[in-house]
Backbone:
């Protein structure tokens, strides 16, 4: 792409191509499903800006290549031998993505050689493969989990690439979260080092919605919807007892998006606690005082807490506890929901001699294991088709994602360099506070520190919490 063809001051993030030659006509030209589409090919020069709200005199920022079918493709359908692997934790929509990759390769491009790698990354050299056909995957979107299985933890990159060569695979589709995408980047670099004409394409997966740059990750809508069931149960229990309290722990190791959106959607939550917003128990503006105030006013209350919230309080109380990690290298979190429940009981029943009825609900694994809802099914379809279009066109080292409502191809480093977090000095968190009428638990000093941490100086205007505050220069990648 000619740099002059982009808006003034743009920095272009385009990803790599395995070859400059695209020698085959796209089979969409003869596909009856697309015959009524007025413009079904994406122009090679189309880009999507990362930021769409800017000051009038500021530079235009980063642009990404627009996703979609190209008029010319790199691969002949007969030459493609693709594989799909799922890694990391479970998330609604995994099976839908698998299904749509297989269907897109077969129905749109006529590719009939697609392997499923069983058991995550280690499955490349430690497990069997299965042949994925449209018939085999046709109904899997109605099931939770992943038909390919998954695993966490390290893997041997050399063995993986050896296996890719042995199976003569030339398109690798990797579905997983930030750790998985970091692994995909390493595999991609090893393939480049060996000079192999192999595509490595990712689809970002995280139920916590903590991947930066993209609008949201698949499975998030389903998780928020399913969380309503737990919140409703907690509300019914709390409402049915004198001084009833329902505590619901939701996913969110480092980012509180599920807790925040589930709270806003429910309207039955009185207090939402997330990792990005510190809270404290004692004192005139602490959690205990707010619980007492709400019980006196309403007679019951519901608390939603993300799993990563308050971990510093638990660590301070149990300073001798060992810091353990899971297979993916993530710090193992203590059960903050159970801890807060015990603290509330002890404070009200033992210290204040005030009887309460507290119910603690942890729906984590129930939420992870459900099939994706209608919204996520549509989203997964679009992500998978866009990913296949990019791979067939010869792009590699990219992740398929939606930026500002448009399908894009993002280099791996852009989605692994940071985590997307709730910006508690932006409007969405203010909307939650006004909805629950809870205190912010932040002093003036805390707010200043948060603003410095979450809002580094930038000429671009940050949007609401569904956008990531990304800054810093990145090198252009073209071949």
Residues:
């Amino acid at each position: 792409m000619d740099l002059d063809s982009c808006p003034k001051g743009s920095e272009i993030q385009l990803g790599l191509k395995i070859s400059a030659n695209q020698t085959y006509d796209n089979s969409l030209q003869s596909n009856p499903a697309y015959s009524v589409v007025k413009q079904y090919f994406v122009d090679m020069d189309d880009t999507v800006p990362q930021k769409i709200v800017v000051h009038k005199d500021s530079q235009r920022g980063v642009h990404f290549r627009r996703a979609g079918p190209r008029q010319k493709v790199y691969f002949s359908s007969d030459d493609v031998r693709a594989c799909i692997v799922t890694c990391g934790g479970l998330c609604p929509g995994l099976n839908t993505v698998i299904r749509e990759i297989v269907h897109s390769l077969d129905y749109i491009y006529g590719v009939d050689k697609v392997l499923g790698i069983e058991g995550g990354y280690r499955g490349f050299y430690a497990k069997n493969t299965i042949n994925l056909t449209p018939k085999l995957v046709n109904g899997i979107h109605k099931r939770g989990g992943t038909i390919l299985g998954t695993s966490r933890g390290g893997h041997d990159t050399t063995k993986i690439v050896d296996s890719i060569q042995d199976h003569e695979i030339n398109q690798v589709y990797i579905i997983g979260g930030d750790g998985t995408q970091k692994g995909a980047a390493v595999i991609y670099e090893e393939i480049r080092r060996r000079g192999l004409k192999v595509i490595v394409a990712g689809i970002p997966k995280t139920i916590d919605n903590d991947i930066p740059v993209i609008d949201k990750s698949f499975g998030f809508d389903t998780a928020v919807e399913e969380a309503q069931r737990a919140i409703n149960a907690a509300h019914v229990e709390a409402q049915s007892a004198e001084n009833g309290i329902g505590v619901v722990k939701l996913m969110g190791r480092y980012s509180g998006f599920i807790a925040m959106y589930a709270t806003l959607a429910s309207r039955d939550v009185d207090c939402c606690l997330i990792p990005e917003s510190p809270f404290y128990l004692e004192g005139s503006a602490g959690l205990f005082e707010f619980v007492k105030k709400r019980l006196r006013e309403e007679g019951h209350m519901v608390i939603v807490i993300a799993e990563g919230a308050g971990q510093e309080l638990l660590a301070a109380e149990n300073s001798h506890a060992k810091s353990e990690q899971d297979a993916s290298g993530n710090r193992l979190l203590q059960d903050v929901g159970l801890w807060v429940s015990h603290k509330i009981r002890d404070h009200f029943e033992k210290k204040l001699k005030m009887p309460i009825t507290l119910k603690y609900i942890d729906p984590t694994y129930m939420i992870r294991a459900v099939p994706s809802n209608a919204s996520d099914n549509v989203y997964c379809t679009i992500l998978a088709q866009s990913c296949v279009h990019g791979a067939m066109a010869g792009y590699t080292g990219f992740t398929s994602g939606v930026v500002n409502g448009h399908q894009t191809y993002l280099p791996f480093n852009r989605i692994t360099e940071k985590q997307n977090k709730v910006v508690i000095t932006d409007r969405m968190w203010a909307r939650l506070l006004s909805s629950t009428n809870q205190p912010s638990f932040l002093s003036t000093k805390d707010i200043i520190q948060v603003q410095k941490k979450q809002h580094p100086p930038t000429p671009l205007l940050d949007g609401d919490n569904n956008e990531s505050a990304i800054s810093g220069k990145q090198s252009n990648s073209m071949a």
Notes: The first strand starts at residue 10 and ends at 13. DSSP finds 15 helices and 18 strands in the chain.
